[in-house]
Amino acid sequence: MEEQNVNKDFQKKELSKPIGKLLQQAGLITGNQVEEILQYQRSNCHLRFGEIAVMWRITNQETVDFFVYLFPELITDNPKKTVGEYLKLAKLLNEKQIYSILVEQSQTNLRFGEVAVQKGWLKQETIDFVLQYIQGEFTPAV
After folding, report:
1. Residue 108 domain-assigned?
2. 140 lies in a domain?
3. Count of domains forming the chain
4. How many CB atoms lie within 10 A of CB 106?
5. 139: in domain
6. Residue 86 lies in a domain
7. What global pTM score does this model have?
8. Short-list 75, 100, 97, 78, CA closest to 86
9. Using CA atoms, how far apart are residues 69 and 71, in angstroms rounded to an integer?
10. Tens place of pLDDT per residue across the chain (142 aa)
11. Whole-angstrom Cα distance, residue 75 to residue 9?
12. Hey, CA dihedral for 70, 29, 45, 57, is it positive or negative?
């Protein structure tokens, strides 16, 4: 029980990283994009990182909001949601895509994330990022 609490505390700490780091770890933004946004933010300090990323169409507002507000709470909840549910909440996949993945998954015995990556809808990094939190096996990036 104590190990589970330590893991939850660690996950919350990791999820309290700046949004740019989280989006980069999830494969949704590049290191160069993070640096460019931070540089722009220095002269436009009234804008938040996520606002700039949305303004530059690097990501959408729902995805930023998900990683800032919702994901940290969902990850420590039990029971866990499915990978598809997290990705839908983050607006990274829509219902039609999830249905398509589930149909193909039932025909191929591939995992949900494998199908999403094969279809080009998500990067493997993004799937790995979500799975690490769901499985409680998060290892911080170096």
Report:
1. yes
2. no
3. 1
4. 9
5. no
6. yes
7. 0.72
8. 75
9. 6
10. 444 544 455 455 555 678 999 899 999 999 999 999 999 999 999 999 999 999 999 999 999 998 888 877 776 666 677 889 889 989 999 999 999 999 999 999 899 999 999 999 999 999 998 888 777 654 444 3
11. 11
12. negative
CA–CA distance, 80 with 125 (Å, rounded to integer) = 20
Q: Which residue has the tokens 């979500």?
A: 130
Q: In degrees, to the nearest 5, what angle opens at C-alpha 80 toward C-alphas 78 and 86?
A: 135
Tell me which residue range forms the domain holding 118: 2-134
| Strand spans (E) along 16-119 | none
Extract the tokens encoding 9: 């505390």
- CA distance linking residue 56 with residue 116, whole number of Å: 25
